[in-house]
Structures are given as C-alpha cells and as structure tokens.
Amino acid sequence: MRILLVEDEVKTADYLRKGLSESGYLVEVAHSGLDGQHLAQEHAFDLIILDVQLPGLDGWQLLQIIRRTQQTPVLFLTARDAVEDRVKGLELGADDYLVKPFSYAELLARVRTLLRRGPPREVEHFLLADLHLDLLRRQVTRQGQRLSLTNKEFALLHLLISREGEVLSRAQIASQVWQMNFDSDTNVVDVAIRRLRAKVDDPFSLKLIHTVRGMGYTLAVQP
After folding, report:
1. Which pLDDT tens digit goes with each residue over 73-106?
2. Is the pTM of this model over 0.70?
3. Domains of the chain by start residue, with CATH
4. What does the alpha-carbon distance between residue 9 and residue 51 come to, in Å, rounded to a whole number?
C-alpha cells in the first residue's frame, strides 16, 4: 500500500514516515502543497495524509485539486482544531480528520480503516426524467434518442447531473469543466450552457437546465 504524506514539519514527517514504514506501508513525503500536487498527479497512491497549513498551496486548495480527478482517500492531519475547520475539510471531500497532537496508535487505526474501505466506485449511470447519461460509454439519450455532444458538453452535462438540483456558479463550472479561474468578462460558461440546452432541452417539452439569476445554473425537474 502506497501512502502520500504532505507535511511541512520535517520532524513530524520523519516520525510518520518511520512509523508507517515499520507498519508495512510505502511512504512518499512532500513538504509543500505544490510538491504534494505533483506527486498526487504523477503517481498512484492508496491514501493521502494531508496537513492544512502548507507552503505554496494549502491543504484546502490541494484537496480541491485532487478531487477534480481522483477519489483517493484523504486524511487531514492538522493542528486546525476548530469545528468549522473539521466541517470544511469533510465538505471539501476529506474522508477523515485528525487533530494534532495525536496518538500514533489512533492515526494507524484510522489509516487501516480508510485503506480497508478502498476508493469509492464512481457512479456509471445517471438518470433524470427521460435523460440518461452513460459515463462508461460516454452516451447521452433523451426519450431514447441519442444526443451528439462534444467532449466539453458531455463534461458539463456530467457535472450538472452529478450535482442534480444543486445551483452551480459560473466559477464552479469553469473550474470543474475547463480547469480555469472564472473571469467575469468571459462568457465561456454561458455559451456552453446555451449550446448544451440546444441539444438537451430545446427539442423536448420538459426543460431540465435552469438559470438561477445572479447565482448560476442547475439541472433539475421543476414544476
């Protein structure tokens, strides 16, 4: 089992590397958020142990980057002990949260629990009313009719249907679909939504893509 440890305190990192290695794990260490990002994107790990306060990218930012492309279990190990910090970590996609100072025995128990779970299996099929998205075959149908979508249109629809009923801002959509920071002067999201609507909604009486003024877009069945 391979573990990525992203920890800027050298003594803590050395202590954890030694302990986890003696427990039978292969451990890679990064001392900054940017180094952690590079390792997480270039190599496959079974678990990531992540501090919050890191140079370069902080732990919150690094977790968001990781979650764009993978569901590797993530354990936050940090001195940030406020309830709102724990809630934020879990809402961003962490699987567990342990506060420093910590017991190594507890850390090891949590590591073993997360590794037993394994990564969650990604949902392969999405269905909303008469709209069906098949992720594996990369096919979309409405009322049994095959819809021809570009790669970006498919990615946009996948994002919307996987977050059914949730209002997504233009910034969230731009980040997830185009991996870009949203510029208010750029209408790339609005143009993409308009093109997607032309294929997914315009030929059908039931409209599924909705604009929430001043907030963003949502995919939902509305009365």
Report:
1. 999 999 999 999 999 999 999 999 999 999 999 9
2. no
3. 2-117 (3.40.50.2300), 125-219 (1.10.10.10)
4. 9
